[in-house]
Amino acid sequence: MKSKITIKDIAKELGVSTSTVSKALKDSHEISEETRKKIKAFANFYHYKPNSLALKLRNKKTMVIGIIIPEIVHHFFSRVISGIEKTANERGYNVMICLSNESYNKELLNINMLADGSVDGLLISIAKETLEKKEFNHFKELINDEIPFVLFDRVSDEIACDKVLVDDAGGGYKATNHLIDIGCKRIALLTTPDHVNVGTQRRLGYIRALEENNRKVNNDLIIKINESFDIAEQIKKLLNSPDKLPDGIFAVNEIYAATAMKIAREKGLNIPEDIAVIGFTDGLISEFSTPPLSTVAQHGFTMGEQAADLLLNRIQKKENAENDFERKVISTNLKIRNSTQKIHKKVTFN
Fold it and tell me: At residue 2, does pLDDT exceed 80?
């Protein structure tokens, strides 16, 4: 059995410095190809592995990044986490995930716990309660303590940091234009309260599409869902008046959209013949709804990759210049399924 060796052993055996061995194992072009091959061959023969704990202590890094998300069951956030983990692992980092459950206090608790030396940086999607309170002092403390962090999806312009977000307004615009293109005249919107910025941006896209097509914005067709109460009961109000029914619905997430379709079917309405429905976020709910739900794809995996890249670049550069922050916007695209595919009956002649 071959004995375990160290960089010092390799250096002594081959008559080179420990620095040369370290650089060769990292494929540094400062070392000649012949020397690199010789050192790598020797290291492989003796199954050399770097002492990761020693590296962490020497660099004073945990090699872990923290993630704080509002919920984990949401398909979008699970895709974001997958993207973060892929990028982090490729760059030698692990991830630690915490949930705020949309609570300001839980978010604050998680940030304080992770920022106490447990991680090298944070990736955060702000809780709804935090956005509603507009209480961002815990983020300002991170800035003061020079702890790197990146906000993704739910962000605030009041916080000076790197940000990665979806083109929510563009997605809302595309979804509403699609409903207009298939012939919908009364297009309703199921959205979030104003303090949830992603819903607000999607509403702005909805309004822009209507206005550009010379449609009046009817506030009676805009329902702002308060998730503290029964979602279905709030959506039912939209479908209670047979003479004022919408013929198209844009919902800012797939739960609102799937709920609207369920209520419409219970009322004997056909989708998409009577009401066409399009949602936001291409998750399993959208794919397996009845009928399958047209939706705006957000590309959460890409968001996760880019957010992790920004954070790791920030950690490694050790910079926190206010005028150096990046804002990346992920574009969206439509996935058209049966919920908006109007059925045209074929006319046959005898």
Answer: no
